[in-house]
């Protein structure tokens, strides 16, 4: 079965059927309005339970095959990319239900899909549930109603496979390549020794299959999440409950602020791999290891050799890099950005969407007089301004960043 040929079909369908104008920050209200439009005969929708704030959480059953597959998105409320991709996937299934690919998936597999497992967090654009708990550390204790819902759907259907869908910070590179990690894959660990038992090997084969599809969209921008065993996480717990569990982390392609490219990669990677799963034709696990392990070396802006001031005190000429974090305005459901300090000093291991020559620039950090350290804090929001000009200030712009792209955001934060 040719991945490339199936990819081309899926890619054409994506262009034709993707749901237009889906906002980046989606709420449960928005999502459920879209789900209400789906035909009831193939998309069976039921309430799995209620969130802490008593929002109904739906799950959708699709297909009638003997192999159960559980798919959930947005257990972290500020990670909407895959939920948006699931809407595209539903649109493709609806419109192409008579095709060989979709018929095969729905006859061999039964999909149980929980889009937006943390709707209270999605309402506020926060990672944690409204109880302040990270659901992905609650698979054992089950203190949140949302975690209990996920566990109960798994228990009811005793699924063999699981997809856990997330967003990752825009701060990772694919190994040491300097390329931003667009998608990261993880075959969750099964034990502290990180051993590759049969369950884990199967999971690696599924992850490899997803990667092989996505390669056709972002060939050099797929990484592997570093292994670690976290028994409280659902990926790991699913293994102990007998479900092979893969994580897809939607990352960042420079310039693609709303992650539309990785949304497409999710839809096609999930559908393509389901088709292979249905045909029992997953690639070998060694392909999984061809994806380099992510490193946290990506920034949004980097200044080389810039004169730095802490308030009015000169602090040397150094490299400085920054990343952006979301700053959600709940009332209007509007996302702005906070400028955060990534690194000061040797930034030679970093790449960035935008790199500036700082030789004719001054970077002045405003440090609150109440600050005990009198230093800007790494990973925290910083207040700084840049002065000076230089015609040669741009050194490089990452591939794909649209012309004029930095001006709005950059000006807003730094001028
Ligand atoms: Zn997450």
Structural class: alpha/beta
SS field, number of helical segments: 10
CATH superfamily of the largest domain: Zn peptidases
Distance between the termini: 55 Å
Give, in order, the helices and strands.
HHEEEHHEHHEEEHEHEHEEEEEEEEH
Task: Identify the CATH class of the largest domain.
Answer: Alpha Beta
Number of strands: 17
Concise description?
By secondary structure, the protein is of the alpha/beta class.
Please give the structural blueprint.
Elements: H1 3-17, H2 28-36, E1 44-50, E2 56-62, E3 67-73, H3 81-95, H4 100-108, E4 109-114, H5 119-124, H6 145-157, E5 161-167, E6 173-174, E7 183-187, H7 198-214, E8 222-224, H8 234-240, E9 244-250, H9 260-278, E10 294-295, E11 298-310, E12 313-329, E13 334-345, E14 351-357, E15 362-365, E16 384-387, E17 394-397, H10 405-414
Parallel strand pairs: 3-4, 3-5, 5-9, 7-8, 11-14, 11-15
Antiparallel strand pairs: 1-2, 2-4, 6-10, 7-9, 11-12, 12-13, 14-17, 15-16
Helix pairs in contact: 1-9, 3-9, 4-9, 7-9
Residues 76, 79, 166 line the site of zinc ion.
Describe the structure.
The chain is of the alpha/beta class and 415 residues long. It has two domains: 3-295, Zn peptidases (Aminopeptidase, 3-Layer(aba) Sandwich), CATH 3.40.630.10; 298-414, no CATH class. It is 29% helix and 27% strand. It has ten helices and 17 strands. It has helices at 3-17, 28-36, 81-95, 100-108, 119-124, 145-157, 198-214, 234-240, 260-278, 405-414; strands spanning 44-50, 56-62, 67-73, 109-114, 161-167, 173-174, 183-187, 222-224, 244-250, 294-295, 298-310, 313-329, 334-345, 351-357, 362-365, 384-387, 394-397. The longest helix is centred in the middle third of the chain and has 19 residues, at 260-278. The protein is globular and about 70 Å long. It starts with a helix and ends with a helix. The protein binds zinc ion. The site of zinc ion has 3 residues, from loops. Residues 76, 79, 166 line the site of zinc ion.
């Amino acid at each position: 079965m040719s991945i490339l040929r199936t990819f081309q079909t899926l890619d054409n369908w994506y262009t034709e059927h993707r749901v237009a104008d889906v906002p980046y920050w989606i709420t449960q209200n928005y999502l459920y309005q879209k789900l209400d439009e789906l035909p009831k005969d193939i998309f069976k929708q039921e309430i799995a339970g209620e969130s802490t704030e008593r929002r109904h959480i739906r799950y959708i059953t699709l297909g009638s095959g003997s192999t159960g597959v559980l798919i959930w998105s947005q257990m972290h409320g500020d990670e909407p990319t895959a939920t948006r991709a699931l809407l595209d996937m539903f649109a493709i299934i609806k419109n192409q239900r008579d095709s060989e690919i979709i018929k095969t998936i729905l006859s061999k597999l039964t999909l149980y899909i929980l889009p937006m497992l943390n709707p209270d967090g999605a309402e506020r654009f926060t990672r944690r549930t409204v109880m302040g708990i990270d659901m992905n550390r609650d698979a054992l204790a089950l203190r949140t109603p949302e975690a209990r819902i996920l566990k109960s759907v798994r228990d009811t259907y005793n699924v063999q496979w699981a997809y856990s869908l997330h967003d990752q910070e825009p701060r990772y590179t694919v190994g040491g390549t300097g390329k931003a990690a667009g998608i990261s894959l993880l075959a969750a660990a099964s034990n502290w020794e990180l051993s590759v038992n049969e369950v884990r090997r199967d999971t690696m084969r599924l992850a490899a299959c997803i990667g092989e599809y996505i390669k056709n969209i972002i060939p050099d921008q797929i990484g592997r999440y570093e292994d670690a065993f976290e028994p409280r996480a659902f990926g790991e717990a699913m293994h102990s409950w007998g479900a092979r569990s893969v994580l897809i982390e939607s990352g960042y392609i420079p310039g693609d602020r709303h992650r539309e490219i990785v949304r497409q990669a999710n839809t096609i990677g999930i559908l393509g791999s389901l088709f292979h799963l249905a045909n029992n034709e997953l690639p070998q696990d060694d392909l999984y290891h061809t994806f380099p392990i992510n490193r946290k070396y990506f920034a949004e802006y980097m200044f080389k050799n810039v004169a730095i001031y802490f308030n009015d005190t000169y602090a040397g000429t150094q490299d400085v890099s920054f990343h952006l974090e979301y700053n959600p305005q709940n009332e209007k459901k509007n996302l702005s950005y906070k400028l955060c300090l990534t690194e000061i000093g040797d930034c030679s291991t970093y790449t960035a969407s935008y790199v500036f020559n700082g030789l004719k620039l001054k970077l002045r950090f405003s440090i609150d007089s109440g600050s005990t350290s009198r230093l800007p804090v790494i990973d925290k929001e910083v207040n700084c301004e840049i002065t000076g000009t230089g015609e040669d200030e741009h050194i490089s712009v990452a591939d794909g960043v649209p012309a004029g792209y930095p001006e709005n955001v950059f000006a807003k934060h730094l001028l």
